[in-house]
């Protein structure tokens, strides 16, 4: 039933966003205005990309996204090692940071994402396609075994 599905979705997203677990964050510059975020609007994304984020069902950043996105979207970009449970939005976080740097006027490859398995490459590619669906300048190409085009 659609009502039960919507309620389940809401409960799942709420538990991902509102977590009582202790999170240890070590950041180079805690005085940075982007130390952590509470909304996706704080990232000043292109409206098409923000629309893609909301279409994917993200209403606000999860705990890992709150802390990881400002680091990954800093200028210049910073390296980040993060660990979080499955389903907490790690892939969406690095895809969002990656897509936010694409300049539509440039017609050459601007992002490269490596994955250890074929299946994970496809999964990440689908997130890129879904998040970037409203950005006319986003094109995904897979460099995997058996792909000739």
UniProtKB/TrEMBL annotation:
Keywords: ATP-binding, Helicase, Hydrolase, Nucleotide-binding. It is an enzyme of class 3 (hydrolase). A motif (Q motif) lies at residues 38-66. The keyword Cytoplasm does not apply. InterPro entries: DEAD/DEAH_box_helicase_dom (IPR011545), Helicase_ATP-bd (IPR014001), P-loop_NTPase (IPR027417), RNA_helicase_DEAD_Q_motif (IPR014014). Its EC number is 3.6.4.13. Pfam families: DEAD (PF00270). Residues 38-66 form the DEAD-box RNA helicase Q domain. Residues 71-149 form the Helicase ATP-binding domain. The keyword ATP-binding applies. GO terms for molecular function: ATP binding; hydrolase activity; nucleic acid binding; RNA helicase activity. This is RNA helicase.
């Amino acid at each position: 039933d659609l009502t039960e599905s919507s309620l389940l979705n809401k409960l799942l997203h709420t538990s991902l966003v509102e977590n009582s677990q202790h999170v240890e964050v070590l950041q180079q510059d805690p005085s940075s205005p982007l130390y952590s975020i509470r909304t996706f609007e704080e990232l000043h994304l292109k409206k098409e990309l923000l629309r893609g984020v909301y279409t994917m069902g993200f209403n606000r950043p999860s705990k890992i996204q709150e802390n990881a996105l400002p680091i990954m979207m800093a200028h210049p970009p910073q390296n980040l090692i993060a660990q979080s449970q499955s389903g907490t939005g790690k892939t969406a976080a690095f895809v969002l940071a990656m897509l936010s740097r694409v300049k539509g006027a440039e017609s050459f490859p601007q992002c490269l994402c490596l994955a250890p398995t074929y299946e994970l490459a496809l999964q990440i590619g689908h997130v890129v396609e879904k998040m970037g669906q409203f950005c006319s300048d986003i094109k995904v190409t897979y460099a995997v075994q058996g792909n000739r085009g």
